[in-house]
Amino acid sequence: MLFRQSYIRLAFALVTLASACKFSTNTAELSVIQGIVTLQDTTAPDSTWNSSPTLVLQITAEPDNLHPTNGTSGQRSEIFGYIHRYLVTTNSASGLSPDLLQSLPAVSNDGCTFMYRLREGITWDNGEPVTAADVFFTCQVNISPQTLNPAYKSYWSNMKDFIPDPKDPLAFTLIMKQPHIQNVSFLSGFPILQRNFYDPGKLLQHLPLDQLSKDTTLHAWFELFNSDEFGRSAAKINGLGDYIVADWTPGISILLKRKKHEPGAPEQLLFKIAKDESSVALELKKQVYDVTSYLSMTTFLQLASDPALCKNYHCVLSPTFNYSYLCFNTQPDSTHSQFFNNRDVREAIAHLISVDRIIELLYQSTSNSARRMTTNVSPFKNECDTTLVPIDYNLEKAKSLLNTSGWLDHDGDGVIDKKGIRMSMELLYLNTSADWKDMAGLITQELAKAGIEVEPIAVEQKIFLEKARNHNFDLLLGSWGGSSAPEDYAQLWSTASWTNHGSNYSGFGNTKTDSLIAEINHSVNDTDRINWSHLLQREIYHEQPYVFLYTSLRKTIIHKRWGHVRLFPDRPGMNVGEFRLIPRP
Fold first, then answer.
1. FRET pair for 467, CA 20 to 30 Å: which of 26, 330, 378, 576?
2. Span 302-336, pLDDT tens digits
3. How far is residue 103 CA from its own chain's centroid?
4. Domain termination residue (choose one: 216, 234, 252)
5. b/e map 257-273, b = 16+ CB within 10 Å
6. pLDDT of res. 74
């Protein structure tokens, strides 16, 4: 069988910012800082700075759990970067690159067979070597229907078989059902698990992947594996990363401790949960926090203009692949009216949203640094179809589309109605930042101009996700994180992801768009894949299941006592484990 070397390289501009308190203020500067932002280490450390090797980070919500397979929150994946390791990694600095592997795999010409070998000398905390048996166990538990990870099942659905090398415990082959653009890069999302830690009795050791759905004797084992014990107990959270979970005080903080001392590296990472921005701002002025990237734009700009704070902190705006959106529920549950099953109504709402005003509201003096979204792909990626133009703000056109669709104010109460149903709805948004509240308020005002009554409702992240996946909402204001990897459209846009209560919250899609997604995912030629991608983007643009808003800028504040700082467009934007403490004079 013929094999070729498989790799993806993505190039970005590398920029160094001065260590003074600076942030992007114009489009020209933003075009320069696409990609990696490197901060110069301060050359004048203050003798009063804290010399503690504990790095304190602010987060606005604790993770849903730290279970190795079951969980979806962004905070979980952020912490995973420090307590786990992966076969491959993907970021804008290096593209797709090997982590636990000695190299990227050799791939058969049909794009279905991948030959891997692990690096030598990597061991678990108990000294046991990492082997292909651990990789096989990781595949087993992620694929098993008894594992409670429905949001990730689609990523594993293309795996057909795992073949260990009988002569080399570090080598193995993955057989995939069909070619797929994510056949290698999807592994960057799943940490490798120690078989003997989770399955000391070796109950799963000889169970083939195709037998996982048929075996009925392991219910008790999976019940224990799925339990909170492996998601919240520090003693039961085990990984290959540089840090271990030392303590989790619910609602307060999560403490990670470094396993091996490395000069200058943070010995501890303390994730402090804090939602109140006023309190966070005060604590930043007291130098309590070392890092935050969760502040609203208003608070960020206030702090960035404070000379006393900038003496001690870097304040940086950097580009991301993330984008914000307003989602229509086109297939609601029985408790919500079908306001948005009509394409013209969705277009009308799009014409009512002044995205430029939202950007100005949030980013103020730096508003020209944010980019409008036109479709579902970041304009910073070469997959984006740049021939599509943003939907313009046009109140009269919006009213005309609504009237033509039968929505008129028949009873004169100021709210349009149709067949006795008033266009009165709820708008869900996260309560984690004042930015969301400000956006929801502006959207509510804009829609009222066309006689649409909106009640903005702030909810916790857990409730937000439950309502979104169960199609229990009218309008949803949210954001998606992006990465430098090629787009996998199935998660957000396939009809299966709506049917299975996945991340297709809007209910978008049909056989045509599902076929386009399949073509994209099965195209190993970049030109073909991008052409198919453009066709899908045009379908999404035409149907308007979302009002696409803007690309997010990451608002990061970092204490100058730390050096060796790089910021990436990929989430979570930095690896604080790479930071190094700058000695005080």
1. 378
2. 999 999 999 999 999 888 888 999 999 999 988 89
3. 26
4. 234
5. bbeeeeeebbbbbbbbb
6. 84
